[in-house]
Amino acid sequence: MLEQRPNCEACDRDLPPDSADARICSYECTFCAGCVESLLQNVCPNCGGGFQPRPIRPKVARRPGVSLADQPAGTTRRHLKHDRDEIARFAAAARDIPPAER
Ligand SMILES: [Zn+2]
Ligand SMILES: [Zn+2]
To answer: How close is the Cα of 30 to the center of ligand 2, in Å?
Structure first.
């Protein structure tokens, strides 16, 4: 189950669970669409994978026990552990390789 993290690791903007701008990698590293396109160039700086839009968990429990109220979004904010120059070099080395071939 996705943790649904609350912020972009790069710019720290809020990414609430219903945000259409949240992007995640397979490890759920979470960034905003703007940072994925510009700074990261679709290369996760933590794992090297690509990104997809984060699915939105339903607010209404249309099946019992399955909703945002039952499994609330995470509240632990995360921040990048790498500096921006290093991230740019990391992205440049992988951005031209499709995620399925990385
Ligand atoms: Zn961002
Ligand atoms: Zn990642």
So the answer is: 8
| Centroid of ligand 1 to alpha carbon of 60 (angstroms) | 28
Distance CA 39, CA 101 (A): 21
Residue (of 82, 76, 19) closest to 48 by Cα position = 82
Ranges of H-type helices in the chain: 33-35, 84-94
Ligand nearest to the CA of 40: 1
pLDDT classification of 56: cutoffs 50, 70, 90 = very high
The ligand placed nearest to the CA atom of residue 22 is: 1
pTM as predicted: 0.95
